[in-house]
Amino acid sequence: MIDVGGTRIRVVEHGEGPLVLMIHGFPGLAYSWRHQMGPLADAGYKAVAIDSLGYGGSDRPLEQRHYTSDRIQDHLIAILDFYAAETAFILGQDFGAQYAWNMAVRSPERVRGLVATIPYDYDLAGRAMLGSEPRLPSSAPVPLAASSPDRKPSERFAALAAEHFVHLHFFQAVGPAEEELAERSSEFLQRLFYALSADGDLWKWKVVGSQGSGYLDALPPAPPLPWPWLSEAEFKAFVAGYHHDDPMRRFIGGLNSYRTADANWKLGGNSLTPDVEVQKFD
């Protein structure tokens, strides 16, 4: 457990050598990197995987202000400082990729190398790489797109939700998602893991209406475990990792990552699409 400035982040580490910091997304945990940690250690690196704030064994504050991209960046810098690592290789998946890109943009002197599973555009549903393009007039309709330089993410999510269910919009309100998912945690995780897999259908929500629908209405049922890539024991580890005695906190890390979209979009700057410079380290 590492104190990152008033909150604690749980880390799992393996090996010795140059630091490789691994940041998961939703749904994920430090446990998501279990297959990578051994090979990295064997290759001469110190593999460090975190439970991001709001997940697993890390603290789970309810307030959204703790989850903005600048606060998460502070956590990551504090972890590098804890290990006395001037630089690190940063690996990011899903929301973790957003935070990895942030590191490369905002603290490039600390990033030795970067691997990210989503393309560069470092706000959640940000500017679609159009930050320096001419703006639409303020009278223009809200773009029916998750990413745009012209309107806040929550406005775009709401416009999309007028057409069909959109989880990015459903998650914005505090309460409904917590109430729906907390009591069906295992079912939710099983459906979401499978929907995110190569055999799943994550986009099924596009044919579900928003009115009166929750995320479980939009996620297709998943086949029974085990799957070729996930055993029953591994899945139970994820379910246990997400559990919390307070139902409001079971998925708070993921939910607040969506709810800070507007704040992160503002932090990114209305016209910024900075280059990520490739530097040579000795």
Brief synopsis:
With 282 residues, the protein is an alpha/beta fold. The chain has helices spanning 34-42, 69-82, 95-106, 153-161, 167-170, 176-182, 185-195, 215-218, 232-242, 252-259, 261-268; strands at residues 2-3, 8-14, 19-23, 46-51, 88-92, 111-116.
Describe the secondary structure blueprint for this structure.
Layout: E1 2-3, E2 8-14, E3 19-23, H1 34-42, E4 46-51, H2 69-82, E5 88-92, H3 95-106, E6 111-116, H4 153-161, H5 167-170, H6 176-182, H7 185-195, H8 215-218, H9 232-242, H10 252-259, H11 261-268
Parallel strand pairs: 3-4, 3-5, 5-6
Antiparallel strand pairs: 1-2, 2-4
Structure description:
The protein is α/β, with parallel strands linked by helices and 282 residues long. The chain folds into two domains: 2-122, Rossmann fold (3-Layer(aba) Sandwich), CATH 3.40.50; 153-267, no CATH class. It contains eleven helices and six strands. The protein has helices spanning 34-42, 69-82, 95-106, 153-161, 167-170, 176-182, 185-195, 215-218, 232-242, 252-259, 261-268, and strands at residues 2-3, 8-14, 19-23, 46-51, 88-92, 111-116. Strands 1-2-4-3-5-6 form a six-stranded mixed sheet, sandwiched between helices. Helix 1 links the parallel strand 3 (19-23) and strand 4 (46-51). Helix 7 (185-195) packs across helix 9. The radius of gyration is 19 Å and the shape is globular. The chain starts with a strand and ends in a 14-residue tail after the last helix. The mean pLDDT is 93.
